[in-house]
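Translate structure to sequence.
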């Protein structure tokens, strides 16, 4: 029996798992269509279930909260950001490693294949107070995770501000570039033009983080 299970594992997911994945994808697609048509707050879980061809309980089995249909429970960026910090070479600072990762990731939003998704997410999120609150919570969770990693690496004492300041600065850069990308895509700017703008603005922001804000916006 163990050998048969091993052979099945090598062949990939079984029929039950494939059906589960197909059902989940159908629910996500149905939700995306309805949110785009009428907005997040105006759509009920019952309507999503009907559009996906499942019962309401099935939706909740896959997504315990409605916001989970828009935001992943564990955003891929979290693991990638933390790995960028962990794997940085000797001599490279946290802000350089994490900030460079953020600028590179955000520059990718200018790609034509990403534009439609960015625009759709922008409209849905900006049209819902609930989603705006959840997005800020996710940003806070990312900040906490990054600050925790920095504190662990530097063996900071409890209450030390430096890890939190560094984490907030990096995630502030991320949030600013994300909103810029949304604004520009909604204005019809995509492709190499947007990628170049995001990269240039991101690099200027990163330079401020790395070399200090002491001389920024001095009153004349």
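Result:
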């Amino acid at each position: 029996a163990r050998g048969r299970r091993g052979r099945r594992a090598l062949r990939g997911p079984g029929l039950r798992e494939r059906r589960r994945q197909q059902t989940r994808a159908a629910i996500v697609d149905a939700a995306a269509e309805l949110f785009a048509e009428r907005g997040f707050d105006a759509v009920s879980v019952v309507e999503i279930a009907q559009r996906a061809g499942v019962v309401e309980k099935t939706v909740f089995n896959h997504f315990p909260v409605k916001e989970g249909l828009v935001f992943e429970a564990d955003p891929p960026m979290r693991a990638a950001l933390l790995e960028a910090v962990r794997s940085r070479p000797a001599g490279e600072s946290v802000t350089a490693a994490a900030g460079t990762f953020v600028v590179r990731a955000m520059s990718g939003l200018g790609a034509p294949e990403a534009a439609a998704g960015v625009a759709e997410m922008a409209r849905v999120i900006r049209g819902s107070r609930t989603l705006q609150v959840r997005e800020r919570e996710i940003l806070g969770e990312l900040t906490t995770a990054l600050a925790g990693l920095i504190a662990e690496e530097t063996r900071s004492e409890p209450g030390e501000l430096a890890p939190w300041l560094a984490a907030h600065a990096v995630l502030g850069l991320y949030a600013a570039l994300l909103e810029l990308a949304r604004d520009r895509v909604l204005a019809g700017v995509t492709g190499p033009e947007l990628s170049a703008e995001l990269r240039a603005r991101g690099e200027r922001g990163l330079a401020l983080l790395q070399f200090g804000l002491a001389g920024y916006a001095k009153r004349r």
